[in-house]
Amino acid sequence: MEDVLIVVLRAVHILLGTLWFGFGMLAMLILHPAAERMGERGLTLLRLFYGYTRFGIAMPIVSIGTTLAGVILWLMRSDGLTDLVAFTSTGDLVMIVGAVAGLAAFGHGVAATGKYSEAFAKASIAYDENPSDENMTALKAAKTKLDLHGRISGWMMLVAIVCMTSARYLA
Ligand code: HEM
Prior knowledge:
This protein is mainly α. The chain has one domain (2-166). It is built from five helices and two strands, in the order αααββαα. It has a two-stranded antiparallel ribbon. Helix 1 packs antiparallel against helix 3 (55-76), helix 2 crosses helix 4 (89-129) and helix 4 packs antiparallel against helix 5. The structure holds protoporphyrin IX containing FE.
């Protein structure tokens, strides 16, 4: 029974983790740089994306799911928290770096990136309803913070996924 639970948790963790990383990279490497090149049309692109797609719902689901499944797996598959089953001591070390980066990405996502993404989504809708200078200023302020914190989250996720995907077969 425990074996089945581990298989399910592992599948959930890897599937959601890959989506979380992929969504983050889509925003950081594709959408935001394109928006930067497109000027005013780029701001419209980001307004439509953050304001009207399910991105703002998908990110909390995939990040909470990945982190929760990862923490449960860690508790079930480690001895004294630092010795993971099926990993060498080098693998354990790399996994610890990955887990710290993943937990930091999650915390930073909740405290900053998610917050500014929501602020940008709300400002996008407010600007559509009333395209005033004041709403444009709020929109641009939220975008500046979202650009910065989205990049920070993205780099932390990159460290987490590189460590987690490379640790298993390290000698
Ligand atoms: C951006 C965040 C994360 C991503 C993309 C990610 C991705 C992955 C991937 C792809 C694997 C499979 C590696 C393999 O079996 O060779 C894995 C394994 C694992 N991850 Fe994560 N992970 C993340 C965060 C976390 C966090 C925060 C924790 C817990 C604190 C965690 C705990 C684990 C554990 C325990 C395993 C090994 C499961 C086993 O024993 O087979 N992960 N992760």
